[in-house]
Specification:
- By secondary structure, this protein is mainly alpha-helical.
- Helix content is 71%, strand content 3%.
Amino acid sequence: MLTFDAWVYTVSAWAGILTHIQDLHDIKGDMAIGCKTTPLVFGDWETHMIISFVLIPTSLYSLHLAHIIEIAPWTLIVPHIILAYHVLQMAGACYDHKTYTFYTYIFCLILGITSTEGVDFKALAQNLSRSTMNTIGGLMVSL
């Protein structure tokens, strides 16, 4: 099991690897102001291929190396497959913005999954049910 620091570095690396998704939705604006974003350097189609077949698998592999995938494998793998599908659609700036929004949802999912690692939900549920059984109408009842 890796340390908390390793998890933070891994999630940061994951976000950094996939941040190029945000470059897809404003290619015209980036071109107008002279930004050298990934789509302008490599081309639109090539960038979609790079993100789908290189960056998304690389980001998943980084989660695997840190054993984050082991916490909830299907819950993390399936959204990445859906993300790659969205990137491959190349349906315009509006769709690319929705793809970026989906990427941010995956980021939140990863944060949620890693923050609950080690929590014994069964014991937590038992404690909550005991505490609710001991209160009636907001008043503590001694059993």
